[in-house]
Specification:
Length: 165
């Protein structure tokens, strides 16, 4: 069961994090607690399974990455974990996951890469292929981004970010 305090913490971390040296301290200040209390409660939420992961969303276009590609790989099932871990270690990979293949689509491992051009992405896919020995793959380039938002839980409890003191 989530307490009101739990909900305040969740609401505080689901939006933009302040760009400062101590963002947790700033979020804690805005809900009226200490940074240590804030961090302790985050850990408690994680320990209790309410928070599984905490990550950032990069607006890659603003960072100079204008081409995005989902690469569908056909990997021998006995090698999926090994190949997936090797691919996921690359700084060019933002997502790496396994899905069940179908009769019409035999691919079972997927990676998302961002590059400065379509050719940059193609070259990186070739590099991954050579590095892992996986030669069957399809490159699916993004045409348009339709959504890049996360669920909002307890929006009425989210602190309104103010100027950092």
């Amino acid at each position: 069961m989530l307490s009101h305090f739990d909900k305040q913490i969740i609401a505080a971390i689901q939006g933009d994090i302040p760009l400062c040296k101590q963002p947790y301290k700033e979020l804690a200040r805005q809900i009226g607690i200490t940074e240590q209390e804030f961090c302790n409660q985050l850990q408690s939420l994680k320990d209790r399974g309410f928070i599984r992961r905490f990550g950032a969303t990069l607006k890659h276009q603003k960072s100079g990455y204008t081409s995005n590609a989902m690469i569908a790989w056909r990997v021998d099932e006995s090698q999926v974990i090994t190949v997936g871990q090797k691919m996921a270690e690359s700084p060019h990979i933002s997502h790496c996951y396994r899905r069940n293949p179908t009769n019409d689509w035999p691919y079972n491992l997927y990676t998302m890469i961002h590059g400065t051009s379509d050719n940059n992405c193609k070259n990186f896919a070739l590099h991954l292929s050579q590095m892992t020995g996986v030669t069957q793959y399809e490159i699916l380039f993004s045409k348009r981004e339709l959504k890049k938002t996360s669920m909002q839980y307890f929006p009425d409890l989210a602190p309104q970010l103010t100027e950092i003191e």
